[in-house]
């Protein structure tokens, strides 16, 4: 497995784990749950935790996740195209480095190289169960 970006990915993961707003009281160190919601074309004020007063949208489940976990109000992606930005998120590397340069269709033969380390694989090595 090629891991030149593993350090960056590990730093990103460590940052996410240590950034909890309301960490539960723990007597021994145990891994925290990680739930990452990544949405294409979602506006800054489209869901509850970021809404202006009386905007008219109700998102109680997302509101609760935000209250009990960690929200990020500034987030940058490596590209404005979904496939490229997702590849960057999954690997912790710029999309250009992993060779995803555009939006991939359902029949595309291109994908992330199997030798590339993903954040899920790094989490799995640390004992996490992962799912998509």
Written overview of the protein:
The protein has 132 residues and is mainly alpha-helical. It contains 5 helices and no strands. The protein is flat. It starts with 5 loop residues before the first helix and ends in a 7-residue tail after the last helix.
List the topology elements.
Layout lengths: L5 H13 L41 H9 L13 H10 L3 H4 L20 H7 L7
What share of residues are in beta strands?
Answer: under 5%
Proportion of helical residues: 25-40%
Shape: flat
The Rg value, from CA coordinates, equals 17 Å
Calculate the terminal CA-CA distance, rounded to whole Å. Answer: 21 Å
Contiguous low-pLDDT stretches (5 residues minimum) are 1-12
Number of helices: 5
Task: Please tag this protein with its features.
mainly alpha, disordered N terminus, 132 residues
């Amino acid at each position: 497995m090629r891991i030149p970006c593993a350090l960056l990915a590990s730093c990103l993961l460590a940052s996410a784990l240590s950034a909890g707003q309301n960490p539960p009281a723990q007597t021994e160190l145990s891994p925290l749950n990680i739930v990452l919601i990544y949405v294409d074309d979602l506006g800054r004020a489209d869901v509850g935790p970021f809404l202006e007063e009386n905007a008219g949208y109700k998102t109680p489940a997302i509101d609760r996740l935000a209250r009990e976990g960690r929200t990020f109000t500034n987030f940058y992606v490596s590209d404005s195209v979904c496939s490229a930005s997702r590849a960057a998120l999954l690997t912790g590397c710029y999309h250009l480095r992993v060779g995803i340069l555009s939006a991939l269709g359902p029949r595309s033969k291109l994908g992330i190289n199997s030798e590339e380390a993903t954040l899920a694989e790094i989490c799995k090595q640390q004992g996490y169960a992962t799912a998509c």
